[in-house]
C-alpha cells in the first residue's frame, strides 16, 4: 500500500505522461509521508535513486534517501548538493504545499511562491531535457508561473488527476524537456 492518498495522483499523472523510467535520478520536494517517493522508487527500479526532502520526518523507504529540512534553507541545499555529487537529476517532483490558513489572500500567494521556489531549484539541478511535476493552485499567480515554465521547458501541460478532489483548486503542472540554460 501507499503512505498517502496523494500517491494515486502521481500514479495517474505518470500513467499519462510516462515521465518516470528505470534508472532515473529523481528529486521529490515536499515528500512526507512518502507516497510520491514510493511511486517514483517503484517506477525507476533498483538502478534509480530518489532523494526525498521535507520539513517533516519520513520513515525510511528502500531506494529513497531522505533529507529533512526546509528546501529553501542554505544548510539543506548544501546537503542536497553533497548528495547529488555533481550529477544532475532526470525528474523533479514537487507536491509542496504550505500550511493552509483558510484565507485565500494569504494561502494563494504562499502556495504560488512555494511553486516558484521549487521551479527555481528544479532548473538548477535538472539535466537538459529533464522534467518537472509541480503542484500549483488555480488563482492569482498561476498564469505567471505557467509563463515562466514555458520559457524554461519545451512542453508544459496542466493535469488534474482523478484522485485530486474536484473542489480542490489544486492542479499539477507537468513541464518536460528543460531547455539548455542560457550562457
Ligand atoms: N507527496 C506527498 C506524499 O505523497 O506523501 C505529500 C506531500 S504534502 C501534500 C506537502 C508537504 O510539503 C508537507 O509534508 C510539508 O511538510 C512539505 N513542505 C511545505 N513547505 C516545505 C518546505 N519549505 N520545505 C520542505 N518541505 C515543505
From TrEMBL:
GO molecular function: rRNA (uridine-2'-O-)-methyltransferase activity
Gene3D superfamilies: Vaccinia Virus protein VP39
Compartment(s) of residence: Cytoplasm
Name of the protein described by the UniProt record: Ribosomal RNA large subunit methyltransferase E
CC annotations in GO: cytoplasm
EC numbers for this chain: 2.1.1.166
Keywords: Cytoplasm, Methyltransferase, rRNA processing, S-adenosyl-L-methionine, Transferase
Function: Specifically methylates the uridine in position 2552 of 23S rRNA at the 2'-O position of the ribose in the fully assembled 50S ribosomal subunit.
UniProt KW Methyltransferase keyword: yes
Catalytic activity: uridine(2552) in 23S rRNA + S-adenosyl-L-methionine = 2'-O-methyluridine(2552) in 23S rRNA + S-adenosyl-L-homocysteine + H(+)
Annotated ranges, domain Ribosomal RNA methyltransferase FtsJ: 2-177
Binding locations of S-adenosyl-L-methionine: 34, 36, 54, 70, 95
Active site: 135 (proton acceptor)
InterPro entries xrefs: RNA_methyltr_RlmE, RNA_MeTrfase_FtsJ_dom, rRNA-MeTfrase_E, SAM-dependent_MTases_sf
Family: Belongs to the class I-like SAM-binding methyltransferase superfamily. RNA methyltransferase RlmE family.
